[in-house]
Amino acid sequence: MPESATPVTPVTFPPAFLWGAATSAYQIEGAVREDGRTPSIWDTFSHTPGKTAGGDNGDIAVDHYHRYRDDVALMKDLGLGAYRFSVSWTRVQPTGRGPAVQRGLDFYRRLVDELLAAGIKPALTLYHWDLPQELEDAGGWPERDTAHRFAEYAQIVGEALGDRVEQWITLNEPWCAAFLGYASGVHAPGRTDPAAALRAAHHLNLAHGLGTAALRSVMPARNSVAISLNTSVVRPLSQNPADLAAAQKIDDLSGGIFHGPILHGAYPQSLLEATASVTDWSYVQDGDLGQIRQPIDAICLNYYTPTVVSAADADSRAPRADGHGASDHSPWPAADDVAFHQPPGERTEMGWSVDPTGLHELIMRYNREAPGLPLYISENGAAYDDKPGADGSVHDPDRVAYLNGHLTAVRQAIADGADVRGYYLWSLLDNFEWAYGYEKRFGAVYVDYATQQRTPKSSALWYGRAARTGALPPLDAVE
């Protein structure tokens, strides 16, 4: 090193910080007709022509149902300390009602036992968008009964696995389930009714509250119950009042609609007023808000990119650049007066801006919203056009840089006083990326979909080194 060079101070994390990776059931498991499993809304949606890229579906996905032992061994080799997975509701309750199918629960028992034997902490998400089709046929999330069905399902899984799984997440990104599923229709079940989407959001909140109470009734007190939110980091294009009002509207629809009742026992008044043209909120019954505001043990945050908005130009016909898929129907009820803007700079394969400052901003916001509650980053990652080289290795320096930048933002938030306990990289494996099919690769581990061969990318090796040492390696540490 030249005498004038200054050594780089390593970015180190607290010793107890949890280093994990995340997946979801429909995206990786496959085996959709085995051991009693029946169709979820994503089975139906992905088999509907025109709904997914290339007509892709999760019938096989990356065959994790049969390869979970190899996948756990891979996590152990990388040095991961935690694994966040989701349970397929229809594996456990094929109709969304009634007693459990033990063969379905047995898969998750085996998975959890394998993780614990490998020294990997399991974190279980109960709902990652795969509603039983029979419940959708009965009305889905816009119907109140679905929240009660979820509570019964939560109790079943809590009774089966609560002795071995300490970290529980009720719902993953209820915003996507409500608004992409029932307003824009780009996700299952593909409905386009903004009033139904707002009802769905309330009933997802109610499901969280009822599910939390159900888990508490059957699990040891030591277990942690949380929810994963993907609240947008909303930035106005300018500071003029119209743009600030647009930002407030989107912030309410992405965040306040969930953390308002969950953390504070009330929906934001500005949300109720802004959506009055769509719904009167009469489905919020006496006692609902108290039920939703169950004590929780942590807040889990999913972050990918910030959102930039302004008041819409009445003459503008530009496509909606909100990063949530193409549809003639907006996922933002009563927000046709808001325009979305693509930030400048580097983008991922999804077209999403790379901006670690947004993650720091999100963490600090929830540090204020929920003082005293630990925080976890339950998803963060990027899609890039990864391809194996001539020697079979997969180098993805863009993802390494992405992870380095965002983990540095997490460490800065910790230094600024936020109680961030862990980080789950999205995703462990390349997989079925919802409506994008198999076109977008978020995995730190490359999957050859024809052979199901797994190859850790440079990012997996880099992240594994960080997990083992508690410090961010140099960007070129594994090239």
UniProtKB/TrEMBL annotation:
Family: Belongs to the glycosyl hydrolase 1 family.
Lineage: Bacteria, Bacillati, Actinomycetota, Actinomycetes, Kitasatosporales
Biased composition (Basic and acidic residues): 315-327
Keywords, alphabetical: Carbohydrate metabolism, Cellulose degradation, Glycosidase, Hydrolase, Polysaccharide degradation
Protein name: Beta-glucosidase
Chain residue ranges for the region called Disordered: 315-352
Active site residues of this protein: 379
EC supergroup of this enzyme: hydrolase
The protein's Enzyme Commission number: 3.2.1.21
Superkingdom of this protein's organism: Bacteria
Catalytic activity: Hydrolysis of terminal, non-reducing beta-D-glucosyl residues with release of beta-D-glucose
Leader sequence segment: none
